[in-house]
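Z., the sequence and structure:
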Amino acid sequence: MLKNYPEVLLASKSPRRQELLRAAAIDFTLIDVDVEENYPSEMPLEDVPEYLARKKAEAAVPHIRNGQLILAADSVVIMNGEIYGKADSREKAIEMISSLAGHKHIVITGVFICDHHNGLGFSEYTYVWMDAMTIEEIEYYVDECKPFDKAGAYGIQDWIGWAKVSRIEGSYSNVMGLPVQRVYEELGKWGRRES
């Protein structure tokens, strides 16, 4: 396939999503949209990432031309019925990782692809098993990698992923912030529909 799809505009500030798309040879242009990352309190947690991705995509639609697609995504970490978002401080990051360490959690990335007329949303689930960690290991990770812009306050591509994640079930790139294989497949389907 490689380029059998419309021009893609990525509505995301995440450097990891940009890196993942480049690695998969998916051409894109960045589009900057600001949306409040809030959601209805009664919404099931599993629906939150796709809801937020759709919100970002719909905010970007007025800025696209015919023949262009918006791609937006949002990732959350969920454990024990609670969403672990981004940590806004060193203390919060240490607290989050201390909770996740020694347990299995789920990473859900919601994706929304759309143009002026059609939209497609989906969510990808990956289960992650994180080993127990000492406070020294947690502090080392937070101080060295500064994971404040990541859901769950960790990046699987960092030290913690190599040294402390014992197993994953599902897409690795999904934990980084974008289920690349599924995105590639859906863009290809979109391109075949258009041609």
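The mean pLDDT is 93. The CA atoms of residues 104 and 116 lie 40 Å apart.

Let me know what you think.
H.
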